[in-house]
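Entry type: protein chain
Record version: 2
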Amino acid sequence: MPRAIAKASDIDSCGLTLSELQELWLGAHPTTGSHFRSREELVAAWEAGRAVTMRLWGSHGRRPMGWWEFEAGDLEHPGYFHERSYLYERNVLSQQERTELEAEWRRAFDAVKGEGASERREHYEHHDIPAELITAWSAERKAARRRRGRQRAAPPEEAVVTK
């Protein structure tokens, strides 16, 4: 996954400090609190820094805390470890993000082929694979096994004798 890099021009263009941008990304610091003196300042900071914040931290199925605060509507932040599947299942992500995540999740799904059920479940949970994809890919895998089984069970054509 590419690293987000803040350029000096980004910071200059939005008029926010790095600490203020970091708060839009991660939320207020749990012990020192907010860099903003009021809700109005926070709203103004989001408006000024939204483009930079989203470019740096609003990709790969993730959203900055400013987005959750001001743009998520009725959606509630599910926590870091379930954020990507949550946004995927609610169709919030761009098509590019969906495609990227589906490919990543498919690799994770395929990585535990042949493992036991509990190992697979734990692996799927760790990788935050949406249940709908697990169901679809499991059905695909099962259908492929059935096809392979029928192919092995059928006698070779040249061995079939008709009377």
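Comment: The two ends are 64 Å apart (CA to CA).
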